[in-house]
Amino acid sequence: MEFLILPDCRSAEPVVRATARPGLRVVPHASGRPWLVGDWDDGQCTLITSGTRSLALLGHTRVDAGAATRALRGASSPEGLDVLARTLPGSFHLAASFDGRTRTQGSLSTARQVFHTTVHGVTVAADSPAGLAPLTGARIDDDVLALQLLQPIPHPLTSRPLWQGVESLGVGHWLEVLPDGGHRSRTWWSPPAADVPLSEAAGTIRDALADSVAARARGQDILSADLSGGLDSTSLCFLAAAADVPLVTNHWKPRDEANADTEWARLAAASLPSARHRFVETKDAPDWYDAQAHHAGGHDDVEGPLLFSRNRAHMERLARDAAGDGAAVHLIGLGGDELFGVAPLFAWSLIRRNPLIGIRMAHRFGAVNRWSLATTFRSVADRTSFAHSLDLAARQLDAPQPPRFHPPVSWGRGDPRMPPWVTGDAIASVRRQLREAAAAQPPPLDRDRVQHQTVEVVVQSGHGARQLSRALRPYGVEFEAPFLDDRVLEAALSVRVRDRVVAGKYKPVLVASMRGTVPDRVLDRRDKGSFGREAYEGLYRNRERLAGLCADLRLADRGLVDAGALRTALLSPVPDVRGLGPFETTLSCETWLRSPSSTPHIPAPAGGTR
């Protein structure tokens, strides 16, 4: 699916002419002017009309047409659709044409995102920069490209588009376009309070996940899904099996014999006799980094560097298998770790909610992670502002990594660092962007650091899920992540923080939610498989080809990376698994710069743009 959303004004007519081509679907405003222009299948768009107002839901959801019609008719402005937006399951774009104004929004995780730019003085929105960059002849923003080398990228810089003049919506916002073609961003959502006992929230989470899976299953002849052996994908498989659609599961045996994923996947498969199960041996699986080493520049990911590029060859093989099975949708467990995993910041939050429980948790985190008493205390006592954390990240961009056994300080998911092979110009660019963000005094995603961090990592994963599904579209299969849906995110965020961490139990919230749906013996798993061997071996086996990219490095041409330093690093052992991350971001950026997508395909329309 790919679409543009045009304003209801005569000034948009040049844009209409520039985008016209045979076979495009067009849904008009009440005025008769084009509103939605794009390419989608019949089952991917639900259209509801009431008088001069129209509502389109593009993606996977389920809606009561009568209730939606009443909401559309009864709203006094586009803001009046907030209540409806908060009830719909699944993952989708919501678009409304409302008495000359438009409302457009994606999902909270950005798995469905809204991008927009100005063409001929009017705002044009789209589900991807792919539809916007050609209209403006936009060039790559080298500052944002430099930012892609940072790991991790903190909020609010996470979702900056790589194309000059193209913008994206913030978390919990929708885009309003006025009759004159101007626009403004409107807030419609903020995280819920974390005050619901798990005994009450478990059923809400289960129902939200079941609705999300059912939304993907609707209208499908076959449903494909990962069955890694972990709790996340396993839960989705059991929910999918209950959706009354033939199910095919896929498991790829890990290379590390200490990884018990295959044992747990076979245990789950035995409890899903109606599904067909595919188990792929390690000798039949592509190596990580294969796609980058063998096909650099052959992919067409217009949005930017693919977040999950290191195992792209694996995903492409999986997409081909799913398509061969007759599936158009493949379910992945992305988002489960983000929602239900435990991070050290939980101690920070709990100490402020319940000091006795929080102190015990901080002590436990310190003992397990071998933190000193002093560093543990500094971590949980930290009171710095969110803006200060951005300024701190700017100062430490090129500092050595902190010790391995080091508690988190401040708001983030880690200590943002640039790779050791980047240039001084790249560091200066990212440092300036972080300092500018800090100077603007942005609010965190939530005042509670656990809630902030949860939403932040969900958005990062939503960004990756969106890119992945679009990258694999040529195979005719959508990769969908139900854990990233709005209703699932809200339900998970509502759980009391103290109920999310239980000594001796792995992902207690997900386990409680899936009790009765997934067999108890499957829910008994208390660990998570590691894929460090896949990363190390893939990098080692492809190192010569990857190092060969340095002879003509596009990142070096842009002044962002020292090609010699990168080549030396690629051919040298990596003693710490944390050292693999910089390779992933750098090689992803280099691969993208070699692809056709890094240049707009169509010149800007005659008449000029802004």
Polypeptide structure, described:
The chain has 610 residues and is an alpha+beta fold. It has 25 helices and 17 strands. The strands form three sheets. Strands 2-3-1-9-8-10 form a six-stranded antiparallel beta sheet, covered by helices on one side. It has a six-stranded antiparallel beta sheet with strand order 4-5-6-7-11-12. It has a five-stranded parallel beta sheet with strand order 15-14-13-16-17, sandwiched between helices. A hairpin with a 2-residue loop joins strand 6 and strand 7. Helix 15 packs antiparallel against helix 16. It is globular, with a radius of gyration of 24 Å.
Give a quick set of tags describing it:
alpha+beta, 6-stranded antiparallel sheet, 17 strands, 610 residues, single chain, 14% strand
Question: How would you describe the oligomerization state of the chains in this entry?
Answer: single chain
Radius of gyration, CA atoms, in whole angstroms: 24 Å
Kindly state the percentage of residues in helix: 25-40%
The largest β sheet comes out as:
6 strands, antiparallel
Shape: globular
Percent of residues in β-strands: 5-15%
Note the gap between the termini. 27 Å
Protein structure class: alpha+beta
What's the rounded overall pLDDT mean? 91
- Unreliable stretches covering 5 or more consecutive residues: 602-610
Widest sheet, order of strands: 2-3-1-9-8-10
Q: Helix count? A: 25
Number of strands: 17
